[in-house]
Amino acid sequence: MKIFKSRQDHLINAITIVPLMFVFIMMFIELMNDEATLVQLMTVIGLPTVLTAILLLSRPKYSIDNSYFYYKAGLINGKIAIENIRKIEVGKTLWVGFKPATARKGLIVHYNKYDEIYISPDSNENFINELLQYNPNIHLIRTI
User: Which domain holds residue 124?
Assistant: First the structure.
């Protein structure tokens, strides 16, 4: 089983972290104005912050064996049969949809009839080469 880690992208991290920080700051200001107790303050701010940090810091991982492509990102995980992968768009970014990824210019994997998933392995080429060993019929679409 070959394992691939996800690439980290500062823009994606900022898009995720900055709005969360804004929400927590606004909640903190509101709680301080209403003279909330320390327990309320820690529950409302501390718990979501810790849970979010755990999910964000768990870097997505992808693995390939002879039958399946597996993905795991925080609480999101699954597997896709390699024989069901129809095409891969290389170097594109999927802004909306299912994306256990942390970087731009990754891979959009199309499988089954209408399903797609966006991933961002450390090396797009190594990941594609590994998949092509098990399913040479995958159609590659490269963007410039």
Answer: 1-144
